[in-house]
Amino acid sequence: MHETTPAAKAAAWLGNFAERLDRGDISGVLELFAEDCYWRDIVAFTWNVKTLEGKEAIAAMLEATLAATRPTGWTVTEASGSGLEPVEAWFTFATGVGKGTGILTLEGGKCRTILTTLQSLDSHEEALGFTRPMGVRHGADRNRKTWSERRAEEEVAYGNGADPYCLIIGGGQGGIMLAARLRQLGVPSLIVEKNAKAGDSWRNRYRSLVLHDPVWYDHLPYLPFPANWPVFTPKDKMGDWLEMYVKVMELTYWGGTECVSASFDENAKRWTVQLVRDGKPVTLHPVQLVFATGAYGPPKLIDLPGASGFKGEILHSSGYSDGSKYAGKNIVVIGAASSGHDVSVDLWEAGANVTMVQRSPTTVVRSETLMELAFDTYSEAAVASGIDVDKADMMGAATPFALQPMKQKALYDRIRARDADFYRRLEASGFLLDFGPDETGLMMKAYRTGSGYYVDVGASQLIIDGEIGIKAGVDIDTLTPGGIRFADGTEIAADAIIMSTGFQSMHEVVAKIVSREVADSIGTCWGLGSGTRHDPGPWHGELRNMYKPVAQENLWFQGGNLALSRFFSKYVALQIKARMEGLPTPVYAPPLK
Amino acid sequence: MHETTPAAKAAAWLGNFAERLDRGDISGVLELFAEDCYWRDIVAFTWNVKTLEGKEAIAAMLEATLAATRPTGWTVTEASGSGLEPVEAWFTFATGVGKGTGILTLEGGKCRTILTTLQSLDSHEEALGFTRPMGVRHGADRNRKTWSERRAEEEVAYGNGADPYCLIIGGGQGGIMLAARLRQLGVPSLIVEKNAKAGDSWRNRYRSLVLHDPVWYDHLPYLPFPANWPVFTPKDKMGDWLEMYVKVMELTYWGGTECVSASFDENAKRWTVQLVRDGKPVTLHPVQLVFATGAYGPPKLIDLPGASGFKGEILHSSGYSDGSKYAGKNIVVIGAASSGHDVSVDLWEAGANVTMVQRSPTTVVRSETLMELAFDTYSEAAVASGIDVDKADMMGAATPFALQPMKQKALYDRIRARDADFYRRLEASGFLLDFGPDETGLMMKAYRTGSGYYVDVGASQLIIDGEIGIKAGVDIDTLTPGGIRFADGTEIAADAIIMSTGFQSMHEVVAKIVSREVADSIGTCWGLGSGTRHDPGPWHGELRNMYKPVAQENLWFQGGNLALSRFFSKYVALQIKARMEGLPTPVYAPPLK
């Protein structure tokens, strides 16, 4: 009777769950789960980012972690659902070292999915709101250091006798957000970045770049974009925001600094990192080393036969910034994913004759359509209904990767029906369209390979109209002095060739800075192990090597788009803080390659 | 029966009020008011900032404004109160040109106070949230201007053929907040500021300065301080925030620019303003001219007999920034209000021997006590209970100035009882303490004269301990070569004298830039006309000349602390926007001197 509301159902289930966990009754716990069940844990039980799929995996995880985790205080905080829909409930809990939150879904009284996340470490809570710093020590003090004096000391300390506990290589959004979280947790950290200033990684990109994701999806921690911020952030405005954010969050940020090498001392449990800062060598000895060198690693270049005889310019899209010098010229863009499209539009706007060479099919989805159908939890309407960005992130994290293709397939069925005419016209231009190997669309491609998709903000119409030429599905035979000859014998004249061919795995940066051996022991980053093209198995169920312990001790990967960087930066920071404080952090399950 | 809840009582009253306003039945309206009643209107009925005190004044205002205002749609949005307490209700309404909100209080079924404010102009609403800008025009465009190109054009337009509609003299917090509001309303505006960079007006102050008001009271519009911001903002951190804010809000801000002169052309209805920007003359012709040159105007210097024979240094506190060169020296600080105390502590911390010369009694209140007793609506607890800064501002504005002394007196009775021991010890040091002519404390002094008070963050203990000397209540006879001789024959040795003697009225800046005649026709700024010391009558019931039309057409004063600047910048911006759009803005009641 009293178990008819979603909250009551969830509370009853959680009560049973807690009681069985409490007495270590793992088989009793398993009885509460559906056959097809998933437990995603982020740092609470496993000190890892891990999805356990099925009862057997859950049992093994609990056998290994339950005694050390000592979970208590399971409490439902919010629940929804009806007789027809699954019950979805938010809950809080505590572990031996901190506080956690999670989301569970019940179907027919059994748990289908559960997410458990660590949110804070006891006695190391962030100083926010009620516990924010005072900013001044009242009273007079002849040894007073002012805020600006303390900041100035921090700025010069590293490299002058002091070492950061954590060194973050890469000062784009991923490194910056992680450093902000670490600072809140009192972890001495330093960001080193090749570019001169924070934000330059955005400013240096091509002229017309704007974020393809809307503002509600892009917030940084602690300081959300204001209500007058545009839906799609122009690149230079994003650059300014990041630069400002670094200052406001009081991060120590070395621009103009290249990381040359890093080696880990197994005895001292510290890194020796060689840097070149403004041309001068600096050696640091951080305990933790984070690679936040960009979503996907260094540019991926492809072999172009005959390149030595080509009279024009060949560059990678990452080196392309301004199309004005190509006005009136014939430009071939190789690659038809996001940057291929953006660069082509930029060139077209500059007055170039552009042909895009498409080597494999691309998933295209119109921005407007995504906004309406896919960003429901990241929107002004969501905000108005009480779903802020942190809540939306948790909702997103609650669906295990294994169940996402099904949801995404349904979404893309709607998208394809809605925009059928658009897709028909796009294909009529010769453009090769796909929605992924299993018709699951853009997001799954992003997780699996980080490539092969485009959010249409205007290029597709130019392709449909023939303003941007398409050469699709034909191999390049060779470059000629004046262009490209294809396997079908056709030729395209080219004054310049821009390879929009994507990026290598981040682990290639590790090979360059640490060693090939360490990089190979870690394996590649990103991808789920889906067994689809460019994402070989085995199945991981999580992003490979991202945001969690890897085969190399005290080495971390942080990156991804703004949303992933925001969400996971919290958990990377907690993992690092726990290690700094000497808390036990037994990692469940060895790192998968 | 249905009128027993506060909301029902308020709705019933507001229904009667609306109906009588609707049929122009002013005497019927007056029947709904208590005898001792107040109507504060901010730009909704009067196009002015005006409190009407009593039925006669309300009747006169309605006679003059009702037909033009055409108020409709009065709706209660929130109400509180009980049988014992007055009913307090929030409401919304519309006028012929825009939307408004207000707060009313009912006692015994009659209205005791009502606040009406204009919040937006129809068809000129700010682009926020659901209506935020897109940031990009999707689709390809060969004439595309990127965000940074448009911003760059804006930055160079003024002085190269284009004129701002509104020129703001002074780029501290007051000018910056107003410019942000104006930009949201699409009013082309330019800030000109003497200092090189936004934020320098804070950075250039003395080393140990921190805001005396807590963070919850200090937010700027649109972009509140984050949850990790300190309670008391250090001056350089404030400087950085203002500099960042100018960039994020996309304000056009000329640093290193002095305003030399301004004259109004009565025919063209434009100003001719002579500026010197980085040493070069620039002439602009804005329609509106805003003085935002600091809370109170230029430094106030006092005559010191014998100054020419004094061998040491004499400076005003506004020119004091670093005490280190005074270590071991004898320094006399003349003035015992906020800057006198702060400068004395800064000198003491630097190792100087400091004596404070107190010419008249000072109101002192401990920061901790203010935080606990006076900032109840600006606190983390308030935020947690749903009172954000905008709501708190409206709550503060709902009490007319005439009723504030009573409330403040009660507050200071509590403060004096609580800190009796502290005050006893402070007076025992020779310090002259007061709580204003009517025992109403700090806030009323701030409104009436902007001087004569100190929020204790540490100086008082140094005075109690004799670490900072006090020479109180004795006139200065003359400076001697080595110090100061007083009327009682005593002498104090001084290597330097720092005049912490406050600031002149802002209208002195007008005298310097426009003319003495115009300045005198306007009269002084600030003060209420309370008839107390330095605040001569007649009674204004509002701050003199601030935030509203003055005797000189198209000239405005904007300033005050962060909270007043924040709140009133909205209404100054709406008044200026309405004029730019050519809306009728009949100002009720001629400006009082």
Note down, in words, how this protein is organized.
2 copies of one chain form a homodimer. The first copy, chain A, has 593 residues and is α/β, with parallel strands linked by helices. The first copy, chain A, has 18 helices and 24 strands. Chain A has a 6-stranded mixed beta sheet with strand order 2-1-6-5-4-3, with helices on both faces. Chain A is globular and about 75 Å long.
Number of strands of chain A: 24
Low-confidence stretches of chain A: none
Sheet of most strands of chain A: 6 strands, mixed
Question: Oligomeric form of this entry?
Answer: homodimer
Gyration radius of chain A, rounded? 25 Å
Overall helicity of chain A: 25-40%
User: Roughly how many Å apart are the termini of chain A?
Assistant: 50 Å
Strands of the largest sheet of chain A, in order across it?
2-1-6-5-4-3
Q: How many helices of chain A does DSSP assign? A: 18
Mean pLDDT of chain A: 94
Percent of sequence in beta strands of chain A? 15-25%
Q: Name the shape of chain A in a single word.
A: globular
Largest inter-chain interface? A-B, 60 and 59 residues
Structural class of chain A: alpha/beta
In short:
With 593 residues, the first copy, chain A, is α/β, with parallel strands linked by helices.
List descriptors:
homodimer; 593 residues; alpha/beta; 5-stranded parallel β-sheet; 24 strands
Write the topology of this structure.
Two copies of one chain form a homodimer.
Chain A: H1 6-22, H2 26-31, E1 33-42, E2 49-53, H3 55-69, E3 72-80, E4 87-94, E5 98-107, E6 110-121, H4 147-157, E7 166-169, H5 173-184, E8 189-192, H6 200-203, H7 235-248, E9 253-254, E10 257-265, E11 270-277, E12 280-284, E13 288-291, E14 313-316, E15 330-334, H8 338-349, E16 353-358, E17 363-366, H9 367-373, H10 380-384, H11 389-397, H12 404-418, H13 420-428, H14 441-448, E18 453-456, H15 459-464, E19 468-472, E20 476-480, E21 483-486, E22 491-493, E23 496-499, H16 507-513, H17 516-522, E24 555-557, H18 562-580
Parallel strand pairs in A: 1-6, 7-8, 7-13, 8-9, 13-24, 14-23, 15-16, 15-23, 16-19, 17-18
Antiparallel strand pairs in A: 1-2, 3-4, 4-5, 5-6, 10-11, 11-12, 20-21, 21-22
Helix pairs in contact in A: 5-18, 16-17
